[in-house]
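Protein record

Derive tokens from sequence
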Amino acid sequence: MVLITPDQAIALALVFSRIIAFFSTFPLISSTVIPHNVKVLLVVSFAFFTMLNFDIQVKVNQIELITFLILIVKEIFIGLSLGLIVNILISAFSYAGEIVGFLMGLTVMNMYNPAFGQTSVLSGFFVFLFYLLFFVSGSYQILIGSLFKSFEILPLTEASINQGIFPYLIEKSGDIFLLSFQMAFPFILVLLVFNVVLALINRLIPQINVFFIGLPAQIWIGFIVLMFSSILLVKVGLNFIDKMVEYYLTGLKILSR
């Protein structure tokens, strides 16, 4: 009894390539928090689900070895492109945490996170805030659903790729700094004013050790601003996630042209 035909094996390999490339850059799943055997099971399950529900068929006698390898590379590129668009927002949240941590003087207190490596405390907090908003808002459903939809609008047997995706990825990668600055702006403003006040105190009363007073005060002021701006951070984060979904769907449209 043949469980899988050669045609289905070829189609499954192509589907598997796109899905594994996508999940290798997908939030949380790409981190080391989830065991590798769970990741493999998840990818294989999605691949078989796609095969059964979208009736994907590829004829072996119509594809040569070189063509098959080119299609594999194309599928990997599509998956990575879609996943990288999602990672723009993760990087923006992480960089915003790095900016705030630097202004508060917390860069000397880094921690080793198995998911992200050596990061500052606030960078990890901002990244986990992104994960919370990402899954609570249901945005992951749109992204995964669009991945399945991509098998209809981006056929497996089509070897060409719209080159417009390259400048689009480069353009949106620059938004990492803009979005992270927008998120960290309240902290930048308050701590900048505080440092100006410290500079004036040091100028007017040189007997006071400003560094001894300023560093602990910066940390406390930073946490106070974080406490009072938490609602603002959530609203800004949700706005950024909506923007991420828009970027993702636009990138999918560019690939399908």
